[in-house]
């Protein structure tokens, strides 16, 4: 697998006291397969395969299920005992640590969840009722770009109070100093991005373009809109 282009840069082996481990990073759904371990000896015919192997199923991850009076964060994979959860309402983290969200829910709000310690892998946002609610959906969740090049980061968003009071792209790594709690800084006014950021926003769609990319631009970027 270390020579398979499909797994390039994503596979590591470790061997210790006859304990062999395969690590696959940046999992993709097409990685779902049966994996087997083979070892050879210096004896004639000394080639042995561990069969049956290990079946790996890679899913899209968590999903939020909406009931009449509560929300559930559900996974198709087996989770550790008593995991802690993180809940988000309209993209903002809220206080809740169990797989169920029992507080009052508003039909225009969107909700998503993640496992504590894995906030970079939240579930897709869902509406409480139907498909009409406030939410932001990113065209790509992970982008790789070359230093010195340009990149477009786009999203679709649902807003029911057009025109919006404000829209902004930001990175949580870049905050206004001196504010409590710290407030994300609009990239259009951030000195680190001066002359390198261009934003185009139409109703329901926005694109952030960053040009002359630098290594320190590596970050997670978010879009936020405010209603009147």
From TrEMBL:
Residues 52-113, 124-228 form the Ig-like domain. PROSITE patterns: IG_LIKE (PS50835). It comes from the Eukaryota. SUPFAM superfamilies: Immunoglobulin (SSF48726). InterPro entries: Ig-like_dom, Ig-like_dom_sf, Ig-like_fold. Signal peptide: none annotated. This is Ig-like domain-containing protein. It comes from Perca flavescens.
């Amino acid at each position: 697998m270390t020579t398979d282009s499909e797994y390039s840069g994503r596979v590591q082996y470790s061997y210790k006291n006859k304990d062999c481990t395969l690590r696959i990073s940046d999992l993709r759904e097409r990685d779902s397969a049966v994996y087997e371990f083979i070892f050879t000896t210096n004896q004639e015919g000394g080639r042995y395969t561990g069969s049956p192997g290990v079946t790996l199923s890679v899913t899209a991850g968590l999903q939020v299920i909406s009931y009449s009076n509560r929300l559930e964060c559900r996974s198709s994979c087996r989770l550790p005992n008593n995991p802690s959860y993180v809940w988000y309402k309209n993209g903002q983290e809220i206080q809740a640590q169990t797989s169920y969200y029992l507080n009052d829910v508003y039909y225009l709000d969107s909700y998503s969840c993640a496992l504590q310690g894995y906030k970079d892998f939240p579930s897709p946002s869902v509406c409480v009722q139907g498909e009409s609610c406030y939410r932001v959906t990113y065209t790509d969740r992970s982008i790789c770009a070359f230093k010195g090049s340009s990149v477009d980061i786009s999203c679709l968003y649902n807003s029911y109070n057009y025109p919006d009071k404000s829209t902004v792209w930001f990175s949580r790594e870049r905050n206004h100093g001196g504010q409590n709690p710290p407030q994300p800084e609009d990239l259009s006014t951030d000195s680190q991005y001066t002359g390198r950021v261009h934003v185009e926003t139409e109703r329901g769609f926005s694109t952030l373009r960053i040009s002359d990319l630098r290594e320190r631009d590596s970050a997670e970027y978010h879009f936020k809109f405010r209603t009147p």
